[in-house]
Amino acid sequence: MIPDFVSDLRKAVGPDCLLWLPGVVGVVLDEHGQVLLQRRSAAGLWTPLSGILEPGEAPAAGVAREVAEETGVRVVVERLAAVTSSPPVRHGNGDRAQYLELVFACRPADPGQEPRVCDDESVEVGWFALDALPPMSERMRELIGLVEKDEPQAWFAPSP
Question: Where is the Nudix hydrolase domain (predicted)?
Fold first, then answer.
């Protein structure tokens, strides 16, 4: 679902303007070492849960909201694991965007929660063992790996 503020921006700048948007990624690991993933309806690819922050929304609250909206799973946000930027993308509707991604390590608030598809952004959701991930981009595997390392400080690409 496209947030209202992005739709308003698009009306002003059109689809060809590359929008720089704040995004959050929730890598949710359960007590069994499984990760919660979604197969996105737009491209059919498996990814951690992610979305765009609403104006003024705190990042940790935003990632918890996104995970709950997409899977029904309530999470505890434990730490910021990484700050990354996505490559530029052209969405199916023609809109161009690039995302500043705040990647958070999360855990289920209630162990044993069963995820379910809760909106039209996903066609499947589920828990996967870290050594048996479904097909996904190498970039998504890297984001999961950054959380799995469990480093006390957030990772970011060093300046050149």
Answer: 19-150
How many structural domains does the chain have? Answer: 1
Within a domain: 115: yes
- Give the max Cα distance, the chain: 47
β-strand partners of 155: 82
Residue 110 is part of which domain span? 25-149
Run of H or E including 147: helix 138-148
Distance CA 122, CA 154 (A): 28
Exposed, middle or buried: residue 152 (CB in 10 Å: 0-12, 13-18, 19+)? exposed
- Taking CA atoms, 33 is separated from 39, 92, 145, 149, in Å, by 19, 34, 12, 12
> Could you tell me which residues come within 8 angstroms of residue 91 by beta carbon, excluding any fewer than 6 positions away?
42, 97
**What pLDDT tens digit does each residue of the chain (160 aa) get?**
788 898 889 999 988 899 999 999 999 999 999 999 999 988 889 999 999 999 999 999 999 999 999 999 999 999 999 999 999 999 888 899 999 999 999 999 998 889 999 988 899 999 999 999 999 999 999 999 999 999 999 999 888 8
